[in-house]
Amino acid sequence: MATWLEQGDIVLFQGDSITDAGRIRENANDLGKGYALLAAALFSAKYPEKQVTFFNRGISGNRVPDLQGRWQEDCLDLKPNLVSIYIGINDTWRRYDRNDGTSTEKFRDGYRQLLDQTASTGAKLLLIEPFVLPVPEDRKLWREDLDPKITVVRELAREFGARLLCLDGLFAQASTRAESAFWAPDGVHPSPAGHALIANEWLKVVGAAE
């Protein structure tokens, strides 16, 4: 597969804390300490001649409605050629810790609006489905809420002709090689190894892996 990124492209990583990964928001070029940094670094080392620019605008705690509220400034205004969106786990989590979840319908409608706005610019789309691992055990209960949202992301990827990064299965498969907590100590936030797992898969999806 030829790499999906062209000379001088701008790539935007969008999402919640997993994308944010402790980035310094005052530094517009800071990529955080997670998969976005790893993917950008590995891509740039392999294809230095392409001079691709990477931005990270993930914000911890964000849900789909939060992205809707800041999409113009934190996405469209940056004029990205490829937008990588990783959102959804907080839309489920808030149901269980604050009784303030995002319904599947609201999640679908909001996500579709983001994609409509972005696709109209001609930008390429890469959707990353959310995942959860059973650490602690009560995370298993989240499946009732999260699984329909994962299905939504897959359906939207097909609807918009986006490339899809299937994280839920990836982390489930990885958990057969090492316990779930090795990949995500709280079932949600990846460990360094978990971030590397995402980054490697991201590179495969854009055709930049070995």
TrEMBL record:
GO molecular function, one term: phosphatidylcholine lysophospholipase activity
Residue ranges of domain SGNH hydrolase-type esterase in the record: 15-197
InterPro entries: Ester_Hydrolysis_Enzymes, SGNH_hydro, SGNH_hydro_sf
Gene3D superfamilies registered for this protein in UniProt: SGNH hydrolase
Domain of life from the UniProt record: Bacteria
SUPFAM superfamilies: SGNH hydrolase
Species this protein is from: Paenibacillus pectinilyticus
Protein name per its UniProtKB record: GDSL family lipase
